[in-house]
Amino acid sequence: MTKARLLRLSVVLVSIFMILLIIVYWDNVGTAHFYLHTSFSRPRSPGAIVAGEDWEALPDVDEFLAKLLSSSLKQNSSIPRKTEQLLVQGSNKPVVSNLEENVRGYDWSTHKDRNSLDQEKLQVERQRTLREFCANSSFTFPTKERSFDDIPNYELNHLIVDDRHGVIYCYVPKVACTNWKRVMIVLSESLLDQGVPYRNPLDIPREHVHNTSTHLTFNKFWRRYGKFSRHLMKIKLKKYTKFLFVRDPFVRLISAFRSKFELENEDFYRRFAIPMLKLYSNHTNLPTSVSEAFGAGLKVSFSDFIQYLLDPRTEKMAPFNEHWRQVYRLCHPCQIDYDFIGKLETLDEDAAYLLQLLKVDRLLRFPPSYRNRTASSWEDNWFAKIPLAWRQQLYKLYEADFVLFGYPKPENLLKD
Q1: Same domain for 308 and 171
Q2: How far is CA 264 from CA 259, 267, 268, 269, in A?
Q3: pLDDT tens for residues 182-228?
Q4: What local confidence, expressed as pLDDT, does residue 32 receive?
Q5: Which residues of the chain are modeled with pLDDT < 50?
């Protein structure tokens, strides 16, 4: 009898311990809302692991976590109908209250007159280009050969996770990232307005959109899940739909310069403009505020900005700011197998297609394009006064982004 009682007691204690372990581990993880219905078919490289397949290939810890994830699906198979109805009720033309949005203006045209792109073929081509150059040993760039495990946590801070719909978005500044962050907030319901989740992306103030506490990103996993964080990341990368948006690298640089140095920005003035003006324009005793500097006609030139990017001392002091850091360093496209690659040049069509694939197009619409978006045709004018040698060096600095994402080499800028 004593042995039987001890056995029963042991079973009870082990069960209680396991229950407590699961409760503590899954606290705030949100994976109870993990949905596989967002996955969509796409070409796969040989040996790729896809949602629901090849679990035997995973390490033991990954397999254990994967089973826990899968068991939660039975309890939560779809978004509550009430939530869906609330989100659909948003106005087609929301009132834009933010001053910056009013100044920029939006293009609310439906673009029905445009020829619809064959999005499926477009995605196949973009992914094929990316995979080919990632696998091409003759094409090299920094960090290309490292594995996902070699990427430090702080370099994963651009991967935003939505556990409710099983979506991972790598945001690239100056590539419609403000509005895509808004979309992620609406989908994940990570931000409330008077106790109710935001339903319309444009209702979300910009200061909340870029607040790091608003989003669950991969670099936060370590604090939340400890030693299991990498295992959980890998499972979500296999089962969730991953996307990013890119644009012509040189045009992105022009856009970054315009928004951070042609407009009064106190933070960027102090952190970047003052050192640039001192180093490359020989200015001393500069004003301490951006308004004083602009009033005195002291502004960073595009030439100063390019010199700053090419100066080897820049990266020795600190990594590039995210607004001009290369996409391959922000999103790790050779380590992460993205399901969807969007481009700013085809933003309206790509966004609409992606929301359909994610099966959330009935919940919201992507905010419309800016009317004054920086145009590719501006490159010649902006680089006209930049020495040829600098342009060639700049291309080498951003060559990986041009090649991986299928942007043509700007030959007109790289030759006399």
Answers
A1: no
A2: 9, 9, 9, 8
A3: 999 999 999 999 999 999 999 999 999 999 899 999 999 998 898 89
A4: 38
A5: 20, 22-58, 71-116
* Residue among 263, 159, 174, 267 nearest 212 (CA): 159
pLDDT of residue 8: 72
Structural domain containing residue 280: 256-317
Nearest to 178 by CA among 366, 362, 378: 366
Q: Residue 170 and residue 166: Cα distance in Å, rounded?
A: 14
CA-closest candidate to residue 210, choices 169, 180, 189: 180
Helix (H) or strand (E) holding 383: helix 379-383
Inside any domain, residue 162 = yes
pLDDT of res. 39: 40
Closest CA to 340 of 65, 21, 124: 124
Q: Do 188 and 285 sit in the same domain of this protein?
A: no
d(CA 158, CA 168) in angstroms, rounded, equals 10
Residues 234 and 354 grouped into a single domain: yes
**Tally of domains in the chain:** 2
Q: Is residue 32 part of a domain?
A: no
Is residue 300 within 8 Å of residue 276, measured between CB atoms?
yes
How far from chain centre, in Å, is Cα 162?
12
- Grouping H, G, I as helix, E, B as strand and the rest as coil, residue 207 is helix
Q: How confident is the model at residue 416, as a pLDDT?
A: 81
Tally of residues, the chain: 416
At residue 257, the pLDDT reads 97
Q: Looking at 287-383, which runs of residues are DSSP E strands?
A: 340-343
Amino acid of residue 326? Q
Tell me if 210 is assigned to some domain. Answer: yes
